[in-house]
Amino acid sequence: MAIPASRQEFKDYILRRLGAPVIDINVDDEQVEDRIDDAIAKYRDYHYDGTEHVLYRHVVTPTDITNRYLTLPESIIGVTRIFDLGDSYSTTSMFNVRYQLHLNELFNITSVSVAPYVMAMRHIETLEEIFVGKKPIRFNRHTNTLHIDMTWSTDVQPGYSIIVDGYASLDPNTYTDVWNDSWLKQYATALVKRQWGENLKLYEGMQLPGGITFNGQKIWEEANDMITTMEASLINDYSLPVTDMIG
User: Fold this and answer.
1) At residue 31, what are phi and psi to the nearest 5 degrees?
2) Can you give the pLDDT of all 247 residues of the chain as single tens digits?
3) Where are the extended beta strands (E) located within 119-185?
4) Residue 63: domain span
5) Strands, DSSP E only, in the chain?
6) 229 contacts: CB under 8 Å, gap ≥ 6
């Protein structure tokens, strides 16, 4: 069995599944490409294998500070949070709380229980959240811009690293195993079949030599029923539980 590992092999698989080359599939090459793009878009938006959880490190530039937003890669489709920018918990300064606790040997975690140390850290996090607060963020996947509501001129400097917690879509051209995903293959095939039926419906009732007639409506209905079933299955069986995600 041929396992598709590229876009061209994926397209050839769809056409063979519909009957090519035994029968002529009345769908233009560009129409097939469009339906594949539609299938991949649906796969990325709803299928749990279409995206991956990522921690993206962005180094602040003078342009970011001037713009007052970060430009993220196009593959980032959603942002859940950014890591805290406060100094009290940072490990880059000798005056942060963690460093001072060890310096003054308030907690010798090598010989005693770590429970008091963990509780102290959680208490410090709570205090920081109360008196400093989380930085509000706004992200739109179509502009690829992450807005952080803060005082850019003082809160960050060029070279400062901001860690973004979010989700990125998988590029099937990089991760070629995506082309062999069972749901994606069936869904893309159904989309191309519906396009085939849509094209043939324009010639409904036309009689060919030998008394053969087109039945585009039947092909369209079969494909549309399959698409409806598969989209319901995508939401019910293949989607992750709903969580807070910006973008």
Assistant:
1) -65, -40
2) 579 999 999 999 999 999 999 998 999 999 999 999 999 999 999 999 999 999 999 999 999 999 999 999 999 999 999 987 654 444 445 445 555 665 555 555 566 677 777 787 788 778 777 776 778 999 999 999 999 999 999 889 999 999 999 999 999 999 999 999 999 999 999 999 999 999 998 777 666 555 566 788 999 999 999 999 999 999 999 987 766 656 5
3) 137-140, 145-148, 161-169
4) 52-83+136-169
5) 51-59, 70-71, 76-82, 137-140, 145-148, 161-169
6) none
CA 200 to chain centre: 35
Whether 242 is in a domain gets the answer no
Residue 18 amino acid letter: L
Separation between Cα atoms, residue 156 and residue 160, nearest integer Å: 6
Residue 216 belongs to some domain of the structure: yes
CB 81 within 8 A of CB 146: no
What is the three-class DSSP state of 207? strand
Q: Is residue 2 assigned to a domain?
A: no
Q: Which residues contact 214 (CB under 8 A, 6 or more apart)?
A: 200, 203, 204, 205, 206, 208
Cβ 168 vs Cβ 43: under 8 Å: no
Question: And the tokens for 163?
Answer: 């860690």
Q: Quick one: tokens of 127?
A: 């205090």
User: How many residues in the chain?
Assistant: 247
Alpha-carbon span 134 to 84, nearest angstrom = 7
Show the beta-strand stretches assigned E in 45-142: 51-59, 70-71, 76-82, 137-140
100 & 197 share domain: no
Domain for residue 210, yes or no?
A: yes
